[in-house]
Amino acid sequence: MTSPMVAASSRRRPRVTRVALGVVLVVVLVLFPLVVPRPDFWVVSIGIRGLWLGIIALSLTWLAKHTGLLSLGQLTFWGVSAYTVAILATTYDLSYAVAIPAGVLLATAVGALVGMVAVRTQGVYFLMVTLAVSQLAYFLVLNAADLTRGHVGISVPRPEFLGLSLDDRNVFYYLSLLVAGLLFVTCWYLSRTPFGLALQGIRDSPDRMRALGYNVYLHRVAAFTVSSGIAAVSGVLALFYNGRVTPGGIDLMRSIEVLIVSVLGGIGALAGSFLGSFSLTTLQNFAQEDFIDLRRMTLTGLVFLLVLLFFRGGIVDLPRQLRVYARSALRLPDRVRGRHRVGSAPPTPPIATEPRDDPKGSP
């Protein structure tokens, strides 16, 4: 019989392991620009892009993990914030100190309006509504060329913060890392608040939570609004990373790419967003450099297919899934021998019974 102390120790062991891995990961991310051999490639193309792509995947993962709602419209709010900052800074000549908060707030407000409609549906209907909103935003941007400059897009200069220019790759990387860390901690904290626990209850049993007095609809709208705000922050970072915003940044393929990042990293864990973004960004960059002889989208599709077929828990759950496959492989010979014995065993002959003599005698 297991004692309570041993049981408590076994429960604490995975938590200690996760904390240790988190500390190691933070140290690696902080030292990343100082130790990589080609900083212009690794810091800019992998580090910074992986961080802002991870932030928008974080918005999708947090929403799916706590509400069960899988959205394909996160790039809508990403685009609203990016275009708002670009238009206010170039057309109306406002400072970034005004344009950035205005862009994030407007995108969050748009997210609240979309959420009021979208969360009335669930499952594939919710997926299709958010996809329709994303495509509507794409064509609105294309048609409003007087304001958005159509296919050309809007170019913006990178700003300075506290006397440090974002043209410096290390400054941009550490700013992106700081923003990503703050948003990750915020999502982690929200998961443990009464609001986050209520969302998980609504995800598992909305009827029971409704019977307990919770407003299921308002909780879902609030969760969708929070995820929209996170995606809006990613849009501002991506605007300064690319130096401009174009309709191609919010087209259908980019929306699917965000979904692939979340699934690749593990849609059941917040850390999976960044693991998926760094992994996919690295693969796509090496594919572009012909290091891997596959087209970028073909490689992305193959990786997505492999994850769906064999590693549904994503990268964050990879060790457990590999242990399961290893145990299954070790048991395979026993299963084969067992089936062979069962298949080759001769049929059991019927037991022949002799007629017993009637002790009383027969006529």
Topology:
Layout: H1 4-35, H2 39-67, H3 74-90, H4 96-118, H5 123-143, H6 145-148, E1 154-155, E2 160-161, E3 164-165, H7 169-192, H8 194-204, H9 206-211, H10 216-242, E4 244-245, H11 252-265, H12 271-288, H13 296-310, H14 318-344
Antiparallel strand pairs: 1-4, 2-3
Helix pairs in contact: 2-7, 2-10, 2-11, 2-12, 3-4, 3-5, 3-10, 4-10, 8-10, 11-12, 11-13, 12-13
Number of strands: 4
Order the strands across the largest sheet as they lie in space: 1-4
- Regions with pLDDT < 50 over 5+ consecutive residues? 357-363
Mean pLDDT: 85
Q: Note the total helix count.
A: 14
The computed structural class is mainly alpha
Concise summary:
By secondary structure, the chain is an all-alpha fold. The protein is 74% helix and 2% strand. The longest helix is centred in the N-terminal third of the chain and has 32 residues, at 4-35.
Give a structural overview.
It is built from 14 helices and four strands. The chain has 363 residues and is mainly alpha-helical. The strands form two sheets. It has a two-stranded antiparallel sheet with strand order 1-4. Strands 2-3 form a two-stranded antiparallel ribbon. It is globular and about 80 Å long. Mean pLDDT is 85; it is low at 357-363.
Keywords:
363 residues; mainly alpha; two-stranded antiparallel sheet; 74% helix; disordered C terminus
